[in-house]
Design brief:
Blueprint (H helix, E strand, L loop, with lengths): L2 H6 L4 H39 L6 H5 L8 H6 L7 E7 L6 H10 L4 E8 L4 H14 L7 E3 L13 H4 L11 H11 L4 E6 L3 H14 L4 E5 L22 H4 L2 H8 L5 E4 L1 H4 L5 H8 L4 H13 L7 H10 L6 E8 L5 E4 L5 E4 L4 H12 L4
Parallel strand pairs: 1-2, 1-4, 2-3, 4-5, 5-6, 6-9
Antiparallel strand pairs: 7-8, 7-9
The structure holds calcium ion.
Calcium ion binds next to loops.
Length: about 375
């Protein structure tokens, strides 16, 4: 449209100016509204990012605002599939590696932790340790269950962590009840990660073997196939020995290997992973809620160099390439040895791992570098 047409239509120059001005104002108004909308969206995103607690599952929190996930998760291909449903069965409180395993699981978005069960000895005190651990890092939403109390064979090194009752729940439901109910709710979907003696596994098989068989798989730390305690792969060979988790409930271990559920085994052969002082210095100076809990528990444990047996079971559930498995037929004998014998495979066993690869993965993830 030009001024001639406008004059032809009987408008004055003043009218033209007025029309241009009003159109300009309209366009400017549109730009302002558009700019405000963009600013509002980015402000919302920024605020959402800022309010995500460092140790909480950011998908869950940020997802309430916008379904955004970090680019690296898309790149790894993990985000396209739903998180793996896991239940963790732990004897936390004696050796220190269970706490390091829980930390890895909690920091891993690939896992949806349905519950944490305790096993072996004073299961209530172990459950209160888990209560506090979860409470301190803002994950009190994860259910904590206690297994059946059994004879205490250890003095619990980290029991004092539970003494004050911080975040302690008044009571804990039964671990076997919970396990079976969750399997019925999610048949074929649940990975049970066992990082303690297998009392809850045996209890569940005894009560309802058919339901137990509907687990997707069991990933366990346990057994000693070709290497015993202290055989780190570069020093003198140590013959296989009865391993702690198997030894303390041999009957349940035998039931598990005969259960028909796919069993993935991380034995001593691949899990004697030493958290040396350089790695400890890195982890314990991160100053996050979760590394602070590890620092406290490490000092209560009172020894020098942790061996991260249990975290490899969690690591395998997330990144199986960290611990490549071989199909084997394993027989758990009456003394607690895990004998490698001829026959159809009843387990997938990781006989070797690369500690450097494991620690790069572990320290970056738990240290919050990723
Ligand atoms: Ca353990």
């Amino acid at each position: 449209m030009n001024t001639t047409e406008i004059h032809g239509a009987g408008h004055t120059l003043w009218d033209v100016d007025l029309m241009h001005s009003s159109r300009f104002l309209c366009r400017s108004g549109f730009h302002v509204v558009f700019a405000l909308t963009v600013a509002l969206v980015f402000t919302s995103l920024f605020v959402a990012a800022q309010t995500v607690e460092e140790d909480r599952n950011p998908w869950r929190v940020a997802g309430a605002v916008l379904p955004l996930r970090p680019a690296h998760v898309y790149a790894s291909g993990v985000a396209q599939s739903a998180p793996e449903k896991v239940i963790i069965d732990t004897d936390i409180g004696d050796d220190i590696d269970d706490a390091f395993a829980l930390a890895l699981a909690i920091k891993s978005r690939e896992l949806e932790i349905l519950g944490i069960e305790t096993t072996f000895g004073d299961t209530e005190t172990r459950a209160r340790i888990v209560d506090r651990f979860l409470g301190e890092i803002g994950r009190g939403d994860i259910p904590v269950l206690a297994g059946k109390k059994t004879a205490a064979k250890t003095s619990m090194s980290q029991g004092r962590y539970a003494d004050g009752g911080h975040f302690a729940k008044r009571s804990h439901s039964d671990a076997v009840d919970f396990l079976l109910a969750q399997i019925q709710k999610y048949p074929g979907e649940i990975t049970l990660i066992c990082i303690g003696p297998l009392f809850n596994v045996g209890g569940a098989i005894d009560r309802d073997a058919a339901t137990f068989r509907k687990l997707k798989r069991v990933v366990m730390m346990g057994g000693s196939i070709r290497r015993g305690y202290g055989d780190l792969g570069y020093n003198e060979h140590v013959a296989p020995q009865p391993e702690w988790n198997i030894l303390n409930d041999i009957a349940s271990a035998q039931k598990l290997f005969a259960s028909g559920v796919p069993v993935y085994v991380m034995p001593l052969d691949s899990t004697q992973l030493k958290l040396d002082e350089v790695k400890r210095a890195f982890l314990f100076t991160r100053g996050t809620a979760i590394t602070d809990q590890l620092t406290i528990l490490y000092h209560l444990w009172g020894q020098e160099t942790p061996t991260l047996f249990d975290p490899m079971a969690v690591g395998f559930a997330i990144r199986p390439e960290l611990c490549p498995v071989t199909p084997l037929h394993i027989r758990v004998d009456e003394k607690g040895y895990t004998r490698e014998e001829a026959g159809a495979a009843n387990a997938e066993v990781c006989l070797d791992s690369k500690p450097d690869d494991f620690f790069v993965f572990y320290l970056k993830r738990v240290g919050g570098v990723e």
